[in-house]
Every structure is written in structure tokens, then in C-alpha cells.
Specification:
five-stranded mixed sheet; Chitinase A, domain 3; alpha/beta; 3 helices; single chain; 2 domains; two-stranded parallel sheet; elongated
């Protein structure tokens, strides 16, 4: 089995979500199904169908989290960092637009670019691996090549 790297914090987050789904959300949806079932005719019972759909979503997410947890390996991300590596927080400048981007480089199971966590498997994540402060690189975004510079690595 191939393992994906994950930070300790990322693993804790996945396990907490799994625990909540198993101990809170799933029992609540089972209760909602039972209550809706008590209302009678299931063929026209919107509450019942909504609860069953919610149950399917919860069970699917539980399965997904179990796979992610089983296929992840916690990696120590203690610094200091001198180059862009897993666990480092990097600030990049799009030289063409002067836009600044700050990301913590993480594994694919904890990637959340909108909140500053970028997968090392994403195009920009792959491009920065191994680079140091001051290094520049080119990245094709939607058919247009942009130049980026690494401003800091923490």
C-alpha cells in the first residue's frame, strides 16, 4: 500500500471528524429516520427520504475518512526549514501580478488551498518542492505561463 504524508495536526483533524460522524451525526440521522418512519407512508414522506439521503452522505464520508486515515503516514514537520519541503510554510509572489500567496505544504488528504494548505501533489506544490528563498519558477496556469518567486520559507 502506498502512503500519503500527513501532518500530526492533519491526522488529528481527520480522526476528530470521523469520531463526530460515528458518535454524533450517524446516531442522530438514525433517530431522524425512525421518527420519520413513524409518520406512516414512506413513499411520500419527505422527512424520511431526506434523512436517508443524509445517512448515505454520512456513511460515505465515514468510509472516505477511514481510507484516508489508513493510507496516511504522519510525518514530523518540525523545522527549521531552509527550502520548500513538506510541512514548510512558503510565501510566493506572482511576479507578473505582484500577488502574494502563502501556503503550508501538506499531503493530499489535508489539502485546503482556500485556507492556506497546499498539497505537494498539486502543480504549484510540486513546482516549489526543493526551492529556496529567492528562487524563481515558471508555472502554466490555464494556458498562460506565470513566473513565481519564493519570498520566504518558514
Amino acid at each position: 500500500m502506498s502512503y500519503s504524508p500527513i501532518t500530526r495536526k492533519g491526522m488529528v483533524k481527520l480522526k476528530e471528524e470521523l469520531e463526530r460522524l460515528q458518535t454524533v451525526d450517524r446516531p442522530n440521522v438514525i433517530k431522524a429516520i425512525e421518527e420519520a418512519r413513524a409518520h406512516g407512508d414512506l413513499s411520500e414522506n419527505a422527512e424520511y427520504h431526506a434523512a436517508k439521503e443524509r445517512q448515505a452522505i454520512i456513511l460515505s464520508r465515514i468510509d472516505e475518512l477511514q481510507v484516508k486515515i489508513a493510507s496516511s503516514q504522519v510525518v514530523d514537520v518540525s523545522g527549521p526549514y531552509t527550502k520548500c519541503v513538506f510541512g514548510a510554510t512558503v510565501t510566493l509572489e506572482n511576479v507578473d501580478t505582484d500577488e502574494l500567496l502563502t501556503y503550508t505544504l501538506v499531503g493530499p488528504h489535508e489539502s485546503d488551498p482556500e485556507n492556506g494548505f497546499l498539497s505537494i501533489a498539486a502543480p504549484i506544490g510540486k513546482a516549489v518542492l526543493g526551492l529556496r528563498e529567492g528562487d524563481a519558477f515558471l508555472l502554466d496556469k490555464a494556458g498562460v505561463e506565470h513566473e513565481f518567486r519564493v519570498l520566504s520559507v518558514e
